[in-house]
Design a protein that fits this description.
The protein contains 13 helices and ten strands. By secondary structure, the protein is an alpha/beta fold. β5, α5 and β6 form a beta-alpha-beta unit.
Length: 332
């Protein structure tokens, strides 16, 4: 009997140890990234125009990816902006991108090719609409743009999308009520300085480098976009539900704003991909985006606003499975 009891006890001990090993293995599978090591290969990341926040953010994200995933090559693709970015990812011309929520929703509502395959990775930061004129300009409101030479952004930019909607809400035909030109943040500031245009729209994170540089060379100011215009936009329904009436803080461009806030519109930006992009890669990439916030934020102020608590809200897109795995792994 003692021998039998001892043998039974040993078997139970071994079974318990095996069960513990299984539990530990499952726990490690859940908590650690999938696979034996960091993902490798090549991905394409669509950014934006030079001097814009998308481009600067993308450059610094590539550096962060290289640190965490040294065998992953990231090709950065400049673009017109949000509209082109959404199309590129949906049609497989890029794997990841940043785009404003209204541009994403517009593409989905228009049933663009591959729209149903789009997935969210993280909500990042808000874009602010910035309507810029020379300091001595007679333009004091959006309505005053009628008949003026106005840069409304490149054709496939998020700026063009929102500028046209703001103009229409103010009762101005975007095609015939102004003289529209396609300058963005890369060329608009220079053309304003030379008086080739009277005003330009920009929608981006705060502060945008192109405007910070302009402030050191040229006296300009921001034209307010009041809450009444936002209410008219909301009445249109659809993608305009993503516009939020807000104030551009006085700290955005201190030399320009003289301590005053500016009424305007904000819209959230999303990091996005497709459903067919691997979950392991997306999980690693999501982790790097969140973990690199402070390092990138030291150079790109908007990155400081990335928040783990709100990153999961990627409406109108559902979360990619890889991103979902990451957020579950860090959930308190």
């Amino acid at each position: 009997m003692p021998k039998l009891f001892s043998s039974t006890r040993r078997r139970r001990g071994l079974m318990g140890a095996a069960a513990g090993a299984v539990v530990l293995g499952l726990l490690l599978w859940w908590l650690l990234p999938l696979g034996d090591g960091p993902p490798r290969g090549t991905i394409a990341f669509s950014t934006g125009t030079t001097r814009g926040v998308y481009q600067e953010y993308g450059v610094r994200l590539r550096t962060a990816f290289a640190k965490d995933m040294p065998d992953l090559k990231v090709r950065l693709l400049t673009s017109d902006g949000s509209q082109e970015n959404v199309t590129r990812v949906a049609t497989g011309k890029a794997d990841f991108t940043i785009a404003a929520a209204d541009a994403v929703e517009t593409y989905v509502l228009d049933h663009g090719p591959g729209a149903s395959d789009l997935r969210g990775v993280a909500r990042l930061y808000d874009d602010y609409v910035q309507l810029v004129v020379a300091r001595d300009s007679p333009i004091r409101s959006v309505a005053d743009l009628r008949g003026k030479r106005v840069a409304v952004g490149p054709p496939e930019s998020g700026v063009r999308l929102i500028a046209n909607r703001v103009l229409a809400a103010a009762g101005i035909d975007p095609q015939h009520g102004i003289e529209p030109v396609a300058d963005g943040i890369d060329t608009g500031p220079g053309r304003l300085r030379t008086h080739a245009i009277d005003a330009f729209f920009w929608s981006g994170g705060l502060p945008t480098d192109g405007l910070t540089q302009l402030a050191s060379k040229f006296a300009f100011r921001f034209v307010p976009i009041d809450a009444g215009l936002v209410a008219r936009l909301h009445a249109e329904g659809g993608a305009t539900r993503y516009y939020r009436a807000t104030n551009m803080p006085e700290s955005a461009y201190p030399a320009v704003q003289d301590g005053a806030t500016v009424p305007t519109i904000a819209v959230s930006n999303l990091l996005m991909t497709r459903a067919d992009v691997g979950p392991r890669l997306t999980e690693w990439l999501t982790r790097t985006v969140i973990d690199s916030r402070d390092r990138i934020g030291a150079h790109v102020h908007s990155a400081q606003l990335v928040d783990l608590r709100t990153a999961i809200y990627t409406d109108p897109l559902v979360l990619h499975e890889g991103a979902r795995r990451y957020y579950r792994s860090v959930k308190p």
